[in-house]
Each structure stands twice: as C-alpha cells, then as structure tokens.
C-alpha cells in the first residue's frame, strides 16, 4: 500500500473541518451539487474526499477499490463556504484579540455601570419640564441670590430661637445701707443688698435675678469702665425695689423735718438706671419707692408725709408693717383693669408714708386708694411697659387669700421683657 502525499492537505490543529468529511458516501449518490449544477472537477472532488489526519504522523491509507465521491460544502443561501484554512486563521485571530493578556484587566473594567441600559426607566418618567423653583426669567445669579437669601433666613430663624428660648435676666436695683459715723465692722461699710421676697417672687417664674450695684467709675480704690448702660444692654428688664424715702432735693423741695432727708445717693443711681432701661426699650416695674421714683423721674412731686400733708387721708403705714392693708380701685380702661378682668376693687398691703402728689408728664393713673383717692399706681405711656405700684406684691402670697394675686402683674412684666429683649 502506498501513500498519496500529493492528495493530502494538512489542516492545522483546531481548524474546522467540513461536516461530512469523515463520513463515507453512499454508493450511487451524486453528493452535493455546485450552484451551477455541474459535476465538480477531479481535484476538487479529491480534496473534498481526502481524510485529513489530526496530526502529521497519523495518515489514513487509501482503501483500494473504494469509490471516491466528490463532496463540496455549500454555505448558507447557496454561497460557497470559506476554506477551512481561512476560517481557522480568522477564528484564531478573533480569539487572540478577545483573550486578554496575562495579568491585564478585562475590557470595560473601571467604567461606571450603565444601569439605565439594563433597566431603562418607564416611558414618561424622565421629566422634560424645568424644575418648579426655576422661573422663565431666571439666570444663574438670580437662582444663587435666592439660595443665599434662604440660607440667611434660616440662620436668622435659628438665632431668633436661641434668643427667645434663653432664660430671662431681670435686674433688681440695690438697697443701700450707708455707713454709720464712728461705727466699726460692717456698720462702718457701705452695703448694697436686696430683700429676699422680691428676688423669690421674680424667680418663681423661672427667671434669673441679678442685683445691680452702683458703679464706681469715679472711685479712687477700684475704678472701672463699667456703666449702668451696660446692665441695661445685657439684662432684659428692671425692677426698682422699695426702701428709703426719695430725697426732697430730687424733686426740688426741702425736707420739712431733718429725720426725712431721703437717700439722695440712691436716687441718682436709680434715676440713671431707669433712664438707661427706658432708652433701651426694656420694661421697668417699680415697687413702693420705685413707683414714687418713676413719678419724680418725669417731673412729678410727692407728699413727703401723708399724715402731715393730707390729714384727711386714711392710714397708709402702721407698726404692723406688711400686715396693714386697705382697698384700691382700678380706673376704667387702665392696664391694671385689663390684667384683672371683672375686678374693679382689690385689697393690697400698705407700707408707705409718702405718695404721689403731682403726676409726672406722660404718666397715667392705674390705681387709687378707695378711701382717700391717693394715687396707688402709675404707668408711663411712651414705653411698652413702665409701671409703678405703691404696694408690695412680693408680700401678697404670704399675706392671705384676700390680698390681690399679683401673678398677672409679674407675668405681664416678664412678657414685655421677652418681647423687647431683641
């Protein structure tokens, strides 16, 4: 048996072969016909019928006497299929191009995934109109301006909340104990203090109380740049407490008796304090002496002694101190009448031997004594809240249920402090 080397075609490993290359043809079959219907040439039939081995060392010998049937592979739609060698070369190049180099990242690595391609949004879900906050005439600067304005409003609102939520700070003017000549110890020193009940009355509404001392900017020992206006700036309201008589010199009169000189030093200190709080727009509440000082501050005068100046008047002070009381009435339309709706008369304590004589400018009467008509309360019309009462409301809670409940007076004062502190 001899090998026909000229009739063998070496096919590279892995190359595609015709589908019917290894199948023996049935005797008498004409095989696949060419597109023109002619019988293929001898060389083409011989190449098509040749059994190509997988390797060069294994060659299948020709079988003698076996008829050779020419076979030609026809492609799709009657086109001739490409040669096996060309197909193998093309597939090998495509596989080499698709296979990455060892250690190289796969194609598309590091790119952002396109989720819209995998899950496209439903029709009509993509807005085509501009956002609602944009106007037809808007520019980049106008939008930026609105953003800045909104941010500024937010900051101001937060600052306002901090201010309104801060605990109120109420200042109380100091009582002054002057040194006694020749005395030793504390009696030889100047003392400034406040009475406990006045502080606790204000603190009962969860308010911080500060006693305001006199300032020593003219002192030789401890000079300071602090002024009373600094207290008016940082506090929310002022309460003028009771104490010594107002000096007759303060309202341009002389004392009829040497034992009634009043306290000129305290007058000057409290008058300055009063004007600083009024100029700052802060509320002021005067109690007993504080009511008289408000009247004097606006040009009014006082009865230096009620029993001497008004002999027909009732008793307004006695040895019973805060246990002494009398009736008062509220004029119609007064602010005190609105604080105590439905009441025209009330019982208050009475611990004063001086009273308002001539009313100061821009002041109105808020209450009078029921028996003699002496002025018991005043209000300054040109400020949100500047009120003086002749009685001591801080003593009423311990005095009995028949006394006027002065909580509405305190609440109105503190409400004005909240409204005017910023």
Classified in CATH, the superfamily of the domain at 168-420 is Class I glutamine amidotransferase (GATase) domain
Order of helices and strands: HHHHEEEHEHEHEHEHEHEEEEEHH
What is the CATH class designation of the domain at 168-420? Alpha Beta
Count of discrete alpha- or pi-helical segments spanning 4 or more residues: 12
Question: What's the Cα radius of gyration?
Answer: 56 Å
Task: List low-pLDDT spans.
Answer: 1-42, 44-59
Bin the strand percentage. 5-15%
Number of separate strands: 13
CATH architecture of the domain at 168-420: 3-Layer(aba) Sandwich
Q: Identify the overall geometry.
A: elongated
Tell me roughly what share of residues is in helical segments.
25-40%
Tell me the distance between the termini.
121 Å
CATH topology of the domain at 168-420: Rossmann fold
For the largest sheet, list the strands in their spatial order: 4-1-5-6-13-12-11-8-9
Overall pLDDT confidence: 79
Structural class: alpha/beta
What can be said about the biggest beta sheet? 9 strands, mixed
Could you walk me through the main structural features you see in this protein, from its secondary elements to its overall organization?
This protein starts with 41 loop residues before the first helix and ends with a helix. Strand 11 and strand 12 (375-380) form a beta hairpin. It has helices at 42-49, 84-98, 115-118, 140-165, 196-203, 228-234, 264-279, 289-297, 306-309, 335-339, 396-399, 407-420; strands at 169-173, 175-177, 191-193, 208-212, 237-240, 284-287, 302-303, 325-329, 345-349, 355-356, 363-369, 375-380, 386-389. It has a 9-stranded mixed beta sheet with strand order 4-1-5-6-13-12-11-8-9, with helices on both faces. Helix 6 (228-234) packs across helix 7. The chain has a domain at 168-420: 3-Layer(aba) Sandwich (Rossmann fold). With 422 residues, it is an alpha/beta fold. It is 28% helix and 13% strand.
């Amino acid at each position: 048996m001899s090998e026909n080397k000229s009739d063998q075609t070496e096919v590279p490993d892995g190359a595609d072969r015709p589908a019917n290359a290894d199948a023996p043809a049935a005797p008498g079959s004409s095989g696949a016909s060419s597109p023109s219907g002619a019988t293929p040439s001898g060389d083409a039939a011989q190449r098509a019928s040749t059994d190509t081995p997988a390797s060069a060392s294994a060659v299948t010998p020709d079988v003698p006497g076996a008829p050779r049937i020419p076979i030609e592979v026809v492609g799709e739609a009657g086109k001739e299929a490409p040669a096996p060698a060309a197909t193998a070369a093309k597939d090998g190049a495509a596989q080499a191009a698709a296979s990455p180099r060892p250690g190289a990242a796969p194609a598309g690595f590091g790119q952002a995934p396109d989720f819209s391609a995998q899950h496209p949004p439903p029709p009509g879900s993509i807005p085509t109109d501009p956002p609602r906050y944009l106007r037809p005439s808007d520019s980049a600067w106008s939008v930026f301006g609105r953003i800045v304005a909104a941010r500024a409003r937010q900051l101001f609102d937060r600052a306002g909340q901090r201010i309104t939520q801060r605990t109120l700070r109420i200042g109380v003017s100091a009582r002054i104990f002057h040194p006694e000549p020749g005395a030793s110890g504390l009696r030889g020193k100047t003392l400034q203090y406040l009475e406990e009940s006045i502080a606790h009355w204000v603190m009962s509404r969860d308010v911080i109380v500060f006693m305001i001392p006199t300032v020593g900017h003219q002192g030789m020992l401890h000079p300071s740049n602090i002024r009373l206006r600094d207290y008016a700036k940082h506090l929310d309201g002022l309460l003028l407490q009771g104490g010594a008589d107002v000096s007759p010199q303060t309202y341009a009169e002389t004392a009829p008796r040497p034992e009634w000189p009043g306290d000129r030093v305290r007058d000057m200190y409290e008058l300055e304090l009063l004007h600083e709080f009024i100029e700052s727009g802060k509320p002021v509440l005067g109690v007993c002496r504080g009511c008289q000082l408000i009247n004097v501050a606006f040009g009014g005068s006082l009865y230096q002694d009620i029993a001497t100046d008004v002999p027909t008047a009732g008793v307004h002070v006695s040895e019973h101190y805060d246990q002494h009381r009398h009736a008062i009435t509220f004029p119609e339309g007064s602010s005190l009448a609105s604080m105590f709706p439905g009441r025209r008369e009330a019982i208050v304590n009475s611990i004063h031997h001086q009273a308002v004589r001539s009313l100061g400018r821009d002041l109105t009467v808020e209450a009078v004594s029921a028996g003699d008509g002496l002025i018991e309360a005043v209000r300054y019309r040109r400020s949100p809240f500047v009120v003086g009462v002749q009685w001591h409301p801080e003593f009423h809670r311990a005095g009995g249920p028949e006394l006027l409940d002065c909580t509405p007076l305190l609440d109105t004062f503190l409400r004005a402090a909240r409204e005017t502190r910023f």
